[in-house]
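In full, the data.
>
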Amino acid sequence: MTITADYIASNEVWMMMDKGKPIAFGALSRIEEGYELGHLWVLPEYIGKGIGRRLFEHILERCKILNIHTLRIYADPNARTFYEKMGAKTVGEHHSDLLGDDRVLPIMEIEL
């Protein structure tokens, strides 16, 4: 889950700041099937203050400008409710290995 300079150069990436401190970032990535929300992270102390919503809405507006009709999200299970509130629907599951444990991520999509 490291964000490299190559990743930033190859994708659309946004960061939100508070008094010069990075507090959230998001990324829009092109994948084989279309586009995905590459990242959306908010520092824990800023969760619940509308930061994630504003960043996600910005990304959705960018999708509309790019004529993207469906955005795929491999959601952190703890963020599932947030994405549902934003209009995303669960369309499947993705199993990944996290330090030897099977981690199940909901695959979600939002139609634009």
Q: What stands out?
A: The chain has a mean pLDDT of 93. The longest strand covers residues 21-31. The CA atoms of residues 19 and 46 lie 13 Å apart. Strands lie at 12-18, 21-31, 34-42, 70-74, 89-98, 101-111.
